[in-house]
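Exercise 7.
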Amino acid sequence: MGSVGMTNATLESLVVDFFKRSQGQWKSQRRYYMLNQESEPQEVESLLEISFLQQGAPELRDLADLHQLEVQDALLCGTKVTWNSSYTNRNRKDSHGSTSFGIVGNKLYRDRGFATNQPVIAICSFSNPDILCLRTEYNQSVFEEEIRLIGHSYRTRQTIISRAGEEITIGQYLETRI
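Solution. The predicted structure, written as tokens, is:
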């Protein structure tokens, strides 16, 4: 269920509130299930730092430039997420980095996607004020994500990745505020 008939102003107001409630430090535990392979789920633990970005923040101006938006202060607000991740059941190198998000209307501009370092745009909606839904398409794949705030201390996330109309990966996350 999406935000059918919702005005951009209402949607933007929900995003501002959601981003502000998400700021802080989180421990993320996640599992990725590869649906077209016989393999154990990939398990990852991360420490996240989520910062709220006001309109005009340098990160949002850079994001506007990256997306070639005509107005440098076009993005209403956003977040910056930094992470340090380790794979708990795979022999893979730890990862760390950051990414920025900015909103205008129903478009969430990102400096990188889940599976690309290139800038991407997600279409966002809300099924209620605690559930942000994102849909992103690139490289012949579709990424559908639901982020749910549960009280003040928890978030759940689920990502479904599809290619050629077939679901290939499900990511499930539990994030605990620290």
